[in-house]
Amino acid sequence: MAKKEYSFYPGCSSQKAASASNYQTSVASMCDELDIQLNEIPDWNCCSASIGFAGGGELPRLALSARNMALSEQAHPDQDIVATCAACWLATKETQERLHGDDALMEETNQALAEGGLKVKANQNVRHMVEVLIEDFGYDELGKHVTRPLEGIKIAGYVGCQTNRPFGIDGESFENPKYLDKLVETMGADPINNYDKKVSCCGGALAFSEPEKSQALIKDIIESAYDGGADMIVTPCPVCQLNVEAYQDHINAKYNTKFNMPVVYYSTLMSVAYGKDAKQAGLDGQIIKAKQLEEIAGK
Prior knowledge:
Helix content is 45%, strand content 10%. By secondary structure, it is α/β, with parallel strands linked by helices. The strands form 2 sheets. It has a 4-stranded parallel β-sheet with strand order 2-1-3-4. The longest helix has 18 residues. It is globular.
């Protein structure tokens, strides 16, 4: 296939030494194999994510994402905007829809952006990387690049809530999306088809403000994966990945459980299946080691 180019919004969590820096590593390896060129938006800023709701007001929150879109329009006007972070994608997509649905809000936002010499039209498509993989490439094409099938690994596809609602992957069910299951199968692994917590919320930022509530949600997500016989969980969301992986020791101490479930990104699975080594696949960034993937990556 010919090289495909996208205007790339990496988001804060993917930066060097940040919580999802290994996600960006695996995305880069995956894109290299698929001949995808991600053209980073110059001087991009934080999308404000959930913290934007904490008291800064609606206009500042929307203006942050609008600024990214305005910069993208200048640098890569003919390309779709693509984000790997679910929160970044959702914030940008929401901003686009809000601006197109409210002329007064669009005018106010552009007044704010004018202070920095910018203006936004918000006409570029805003997409999550998973949308790009499924809609622009398709499972058959993605499967053609597999050189090390992930045979014998049982994986629970934890979609989470942000990439599923309110926009979601085209044609997918909100209650039981299948795209991660299909992607797992395409990489040669075995999806857990009866995973009933695949669209449950992990608590998001509640992990900091109300950890008991978040950890109760996370416990159910992990427990359901174990009940389905999963060896690991895969997700498209950096917040989901961090929360479900990092708090297992806390949950074990509180609930007397013995969780030790690796939680990886779809791009990590793909990188390993595409023949990349453990470092290229970002496996060195795991808190709970995905030993089955490490073994395949080391072959």
